[in-house]
Structures are given as C-alpha cells and as structure tokens.
Specification:
Layout (H helix, E strand, L loop, with lengths): L4 H13 L3 H13 L6 H9 L4 H5 L3 H7 L8 H17 L1 H23 L1 H11 L4
Length: 132
C-alpha cells in the first residue's frame, strides 16, 4: 500500500531532523532480534501492531469487530483477558519489554518532532496537497 501524503511528509521530516534515525532503528531492531521472546503467541500481538494493542482489545465491541471482522468470536471479556495477558507478558519478557520501550521512545520522538515543527508540517502538507 502506498504511503499517504501525511506519512511521506512525516517520514521525510523525521529523517531530515534526525539524520541517523534509520541506522539507529536498524541497530535497535538487530539488538532486539538477539533476545528471544518467552511466549511468541503473546509477543506477536506486540510485534504486529503499531498502536497500543491493549487499547484495541479494550475497544467497544462494535468498533473492534468492524476493524477486525476475522476476530468476531472474540468477545469483550476474552479480549480484556488477552489484553491483561499481553500486559503481563510485556513486563516479564525481556524481548517484549524492550520492544515496548523502543516503541514508546520512538512515539515520543515523533510526538516531540510534530509538536516543535507543526507549522512546517502544515506548510508541507498544504504544498503537497495533503489534508491538514
């Protein structure tokens, strides 16, 4: 799938403001790969989602099932238990604890970058025909 104009602008901005970001992310990924997950079934949930899986699992039924129709048999109670299991796993598994920490670090970098470059982002989106 082709990245949106917004994604392209943000990626370009991240790279321009953090020249070594690609190398840093690759190094982090390599280091993370050296650590085995203690429960791949739970760990995959953390690997597969870029946004908080716990928030997704705790979403109202209508929203959850509209986004994940293939999981229609997973009711709210089962999702809440799965979310709790994932949270516990992410605190006890070294691999997943590190993955969550790296994701949070990157999210903060993007949030800070967005906040400090809001006008530049708006200008670039406007000039490239993206929605603001």
């Amino acid at each position: 799938m082709e990245p949106s104009v917004v994604e392209k602008v943000l990626v370009d901005l991240i790279r321009s403001k953090n020249s070594g970001i690609s190398d840093t992310l690759n190094e982090q990924e390599a280091e993370l790969a050296k650590i085995d997950c203690t429960d791949r079934q739970l760990g995959e949930w953390l690997e597969d989602f870029e946004i908080s899986i716990v928030e997704i699992l705790n979403a109202p039924d209508d929203y959850f099932h509209s986004r994940f129709p293939e999981l229609k048999d997973l009711d709210a109670e089962s999702r809440a238990q799965l979310a709790q299991d994932i949270l516990e796993h992410s605190q006890t598994c070294l691999h997943c604890r590190q993955k969550v920490a790296l994701d949070q670090e990157f999210e903060k970098l993007v949030d800070d970058l967005f906040e400090s470059n809001r006008d530049e982002i708006k200008g670039r989106l406007y000039s490239e025909g993206g929605e603001i």
